[in-house]
Amino acid sequence: MSIPFYALDKPGEKGVVLGNEGIARGIFEACVKVAAGYPGTPSSEIMETLAIIHKYYPTFDLEWSTNEKVAFEVALGASMCNARAFACMKHVGLNVASDAFMTATYAGAHGGFVIISADDPNCYSSQNEQDNRNYGKFSLCPVFEPINIQEAKDIVKFAFDFSEEYKSLVILRTTTRLNHARGDLILGEIKKIEGRKYDFDKDRARWTFLPSNARVQRVKQLERYEKIRLFSDNCPYTKLDLKDGAKIGLISAGIPYSYAIDALSMLKLTNKVSTLKLGMVFPPPEKLITELFENSERVVILEELDPFLEDLAKKIAFEQSVQLEIEGKKFFPRNGELNLSKTMEGLTKFLKIPNPFVNLQINTSELHKASPRPPVLCPGCSHRNTFYALKLMEHKLGKIWAYIGDIGCYTLGFYKPIETIDTCICMGASIGIANGIAKLHDGPVLAIIGDSTFFHAGVPGLIDAVYNQNNILIIILDNSVTAMTGFQPHPGTGIKITGEQGTKISLENLILGAGIEKDHLWVVDSNDLKQTTKAIEEAVKIKGPKALISRHGCILYERGIQKDLKIVPVQIDPEKCNNCLICIKNFGCPALTLKEGKVTVIESQCVGCNMCVEICPFKAISPKE
Amino acid sequence: MAFDITEKGIINNDKKFRVKDNFNALCVGVGGTGVIRASMILGWCASKEGFKVRTAETHGMSQRGGSVLSYLRFGKFLEGPFMIEGDLDVLLAFEISEALRNLHFANKDTFVIASKNSVVPPSVLTHISLKIDGNKCVGCGNCVAHCLPNQIYRESNNNHFYTLMKGPTRIVINGSCRVFDSCTGCVHCIIDKVCPFGAIEAFNEWEYPAVELIEKDISSVVKNVIILDAEKIATDAGNILAANIVLLGVLIGVNVIPLSERITKETIKNFVPKKQLDVNVKAFDVGFDIGSDYKKK
Fold first, then answer.
1. How many domains does chain B have?
2. pLDDT tens for residues A41-76?
3. Do A222 and A269 sit in the same domain of this protein?
4. Which CATH number belongs to the domain containing residue A608 in this structure?
5. Which B-chain residues 193-232 have CB contacts (< 8 A) with chain A?
6. Domain presence at residue A113
7. Domain tally for chain A?
8. B30 interaction partners in chain A (CB closer than 8 Å)
9. Most buried one in A356, A506, B25, B87, CB count within 10 A?
10. Is residue A371 one of the residues assigned to a domain?
11. Which helix (H) or strand (E) is A593 found in, with range?
12. Helix orientation angle between B35-48 and B243-254, rounded to the nearest 10 degrees
């Protein structure tokens, strides 16, 4: 593979990159020393890109950490050694790291410390769409938000310098429409930091948060915040553009700012509306905002999700005794993501002008509708097989089984025809919630969790089950990879982010070490229906905490890495098949379809797991010979 | 070249298209059809031609059989990755029902280039069910007795241990037949005409329209559309996976966006496996000829 564009040592070279590649390039150009993260859409490619860059320039250390809290702490440790550190996570990942983060912001940064929070408006691949700009206000940590990929790269570099100058942690906040966008990038110079000593800084009172120290650091945090608050007006990525005679002002930041520019250009109002673009969204630039207020009669705030900037702006207006109309959420929705159409709608309403760009599109109401295409588990997915075994046993043994789920590919088991996931709240919640439900529910309570999720957040729940003797069955779906986010390795696979061998952690040993009794732990092959159903039946009849590891490699991952993997698809005997459709309706493998009313195997999709062979009541399916 | 790039924007020379500052395209399809790769190639081309480029996509669901969509904008003056709904120059579809799904982004002048490739979502098959006409049904129970899946359910614990049947498929209650969720949608009761009163009707809330109907729908709302068997052309060229490159060829051939053949072919070479170079060039060329032969309305 030739060196990718984003790894070239060619300042000034132009190309097109993914947003995350641009951010990774910025982190590299800033001379980061330690990077740590946990996979989470839309942030994952940042670490993966750094791993590729690392192949060509092994001048820094990087790791997939067990979870975002550990990742943050690893980076914090590096910062304590005066090294530039980077922590990578999605928005909910910062929740996991927040215990460490909220106190670390008192101590501030020694080596430059940048955290990325990759938010997900519209929950494209998340449990919620929380607006992490709020973490800035909560922790008094400055938040930068770039408007495009070039700015993202440049601002990351700036953020590291800023972090060291002001001794402050910095949040770089992005959204899916930046992380998973592609755009132009001009490469910059790769910075070199020489002569720095990286020993642990023994400023013990700074790092040890006993109450007496905490109060001292708190004062330092407030002093730091005050300096940054005054700096905000001078942030090079914040720009006030007052237009002569303009009565309308617009405040925006991040990707929504790009919508504002496009909308104003299309309305031919670029010279009639003053704009304030915030590169630092927290703390806000109070002087510039006040200046915009003083030069406008009405101001609109264009942002998606929370009225974060709106509330800050209204507070400033009140403090400066400025009287004018300031609106935001009145015209733009609070949920979901913004786009150009919604921007145009809200903006024209605010401006009290007709929207000339409405009803341009084709009226599709008379046309046929394309059928929904929700994501499904892949053909041959071992999770489908485990779910099937569970349902067989539920049907056989009776009672209502509670399937307390977690985050991963298996969450798709919520949908038809599997319908064997009843809850999914956050990482590791399966075991925690199961512990609670088991105190009350009359029927088997199963916590369904994946291997990577288990390492991330399942262990405390497991220990709780053992210690408090909660009557739950923990089903660990072990497909030996972090699949949903793009097949990253984890402690259970033993491979490090660089591809090197690390130390593999045995799930069995961990579970037994936590106190699960030896004969309350089953290990089965997910694709062995007989073995799996037998183990499930035994397990649910026993009281107390129990674990069942249902193990089989992710077939999509294995097909990807083993190009010559031998696959024997199945075939259907037309003499025996009655087209009862039980295999399609009740098992739901996507490799089985209907052609002219007859059940047919899509050979390119079939991976030869042979589950359907067992399922067919007429024994009409067999491996092709 | 039909376009001139000036400080005022991009001006077309044959005066059939609006003066524009930028071009908007949408690449749609399903996982495995090369949507994102095609969008990436076009993005690089636009950058090489000197335009600003912005794309937006969502990752991850494609490999689990989901829809894939990539917005692509390029031009001299643009900031964001989205276009206003309806302001679309090109809709490039690598699966036919995805073209239908995304027509609401298009206007009647949008150029639609689509592959005949039809991938029925597996979920469609799991949503087939039945409707019983209460006015016609007398509760005779004939369909209950004839239902094969129902028979399998009754035998399931004894004979078919690994065959999951969650309950009866139908029963007669209060003189009328009621169908349950465990009905598999095999529709033998309709095919074999087991109901003497014709009270049973198949019903799928997630119907995948017939390909001919989809093609008709698309042609009825846009003036310029090319629907072709890109998969067959790619297979004849040497690899079915080059179907997306066929469509890129058509796009450059019809000459409705200012990207040149030379630069597109150069860029494609950087994005396909070295061993497949000839196959992809052939696929592009066949597509290009189809595009350039097309007479615009």
1. 2
2. 999 999 999 999 999 999 999 999 999 999 999 999
3. no
4. 3.30.70.20
5. 206-209, 213-214, 217, 220-222
6. yes
7. 4
8. 373
9. B25
10. no
11. strand A592-595
12. 40
